[in-house]
Amino acid sequence: MKTLLGLPLFLLLPPLAGQTNTGELRLAITDSAGLALKSTVEVVSEANHCRETFESNGEGRVNAKRLPYGMYRVEARHEGFTPAANLVEIRSALPKE
Q1: 2-3 and 81-82 as β-strands: parallel, antiparallel, unpaired?
Q2: R_g of the chain computed on alpha carbons
Q3: Predicted local distance difference test score (pLDDT) of residue 3
């Protein structure tokens, strides 16, 4: 069975007009050859009671906006591939790769 490659994760905040306690999670979903995959991505934070599902675009990209600071479990699923999951912490206004 094929597996999804690790999820490159970039944490960015939207333009700031004042202080905010939310961040933006940007994902690029690819296979082992680096080809973009249209996938379903679930972002879950038990502490924040937040559960959101996103669909990546044709370029394999997902932008999850206005996520409260905290730990998130991010899982990508694509038919025919083993799901890939990572833990991500959104806690800073500084971009993080």
Answers
A1: parallel
A2: 13
A3: 58
